[in-house]
Amino acid sequence: MQQTTWTRRSLAKLAAGAAMLLCLPGLALAQDRPKPFDKPDGVTIALVRYLSTGDFFQAYLTGVQNQAKALGINLRVLDSRQDAALQADMVDQAIALGVDGIIVQHGLTESMSEPVKRAVAAGIKVVAFDVNVNNPKVPQIEQSDRDLARLALEQAVKDNGDSFEAAYVYVPGIAPLDRRDETWRKFKKQYPGIKQDAQFGTLDNPIANSVANQAAAVLRANPGISVVFAPYDEFAKGVKIAVDEAGLTDAIKIYSADISTADIQAMREEPSAWVATAATNPQLIGEVSVRALAMLLAGEDPGHSVVVPPTLVTRDMLMTNDIKNMDELAKKLPQFAKTDVATPKWMPVP
């Protein structure tokens, strides 16, 4: 009799414990999720990449993989390595594979618009991160690129005043860089004392080394430059290489966008010309990209513009708080660790 009583009590406790676990975020049973996520391995998506060089894009990929795993999604990664024609072909490959959804990560509007149109016509759900595919049915995942540029440039004025000679690193045709360029042009009108001495930039691999070669020539030809606006971290890495090699660390300040552990280490060097960057956590952006696509697949609307807000990170902040990597940055800046963007109640998160 005692054994029977003990067994019943134990079973009751186990049942109560299981119920509590199922109430925790991210631990809902698959059958509690909307179709097609109510079946294990019921969804396959493709990530079609244009840019993949650098820590930012590795962190983005990690976020995509983590969120896909949390949802039980089969993920196919197709990497064009900055070949626009190949990226377009890869979208068609994904269509032929019969995937349920596609994430287009970066790319050129002129090469992506038609293949994405074909995917949508085939009934495939599509989201786009940092590429304008000219399709109202495709949500745009953004880092709020205009705010990224604004935060970095406001810091440049705070540090250097509203009159200085600048160099600008830019490659047109890439949606996030084009949006950041809009802010740069408005900023120069707002502060007419800012003189742009030179503009340069390339996406040739390896990007940082290619930009470094250009920056070295620009700095030699324009000795009055004291500020470089390089709104992509691979650009900033290249400029820093050139500044260091020219012995101009004390004469030039670099302002950028995006961040990674390698960027943090470069900013922490003693001395370092790289003094500020505006960024979102690329891993979170990867997670949000998958969540927005999952909402579409579940018949929900994530909104046409899905924006992850950025944060300003300065060298002084990193040094004062002894931040040496992305994990420590997330711990010291909670807004960098998590976001509730595109997170319906049924959605498990990593």
Describe this structure in words.
By secondary structure, the protein is an alpha/beta fold. The chain has two domains: 30-143 and 282-309, 3-Layer(aba) Sandwich (Rossmann fold), CATH 3.40.50.2300; 145-279, 3-Layer(aba) Sandwich (Rossmann fold). It contains twelve helices and twelve strands. The protein has helices at 2-23, 55-71, 84-97, 109-121, 145-160, 175-190, 207-221, 233-245, 261-268, 282-297, 315-320, 326-332, and strands at 43-49, 73-79, 101-105, 125-129, 140-142, 164-169, 194-200, 227-230, 253-257, 274-279, 305-307, 311-314. The strands form two sheets. The protein has a six-stranded parallel sheet, with helices on both faces. A six-stranded mixed sheet has the order 7-6-8-9-10-12, sandwiched between helices. Helix 2 (55-71) runs parallel beside helix 10 (282-297). 44% of the residues are buried.
Brief sketch in words of this structure:
Helices cover 47% and strands 18% of the residues. The protein has 350 residues and is of the alpha/beta class. It folds into 2 domains: 30-143 and 282-309, Response regulator (Rossmann fold), CATH 3.40.50; 145-279, 3-Layer(aba) Sandwich (Rossmann fold).
Q: What proportion of the residues form beta strands (DSSP E)? A: 15-25%
* C-alpha end-to-end distance: 45 Å
Q: Give the strand tally.
A: 12
Work out the helix count: 12
CATH topology name of the largest domain: Rossmann fold
What best-fitting shape do the alpha-carbon axes yield? globular
Contiguous runs where pLDDT drops below 50 for at least 5 residues: 1-7, 9-28
- Under CATH, the homologous superfamily of the largest domain reads Response regulator
Structural class: alpha/beta
Strand order of the largest sheet: 2-1-3-4-5-11
CATH architecture of the largest domain: 3-Layer(aba) Sandwich
- What is the number of independent domains? 2
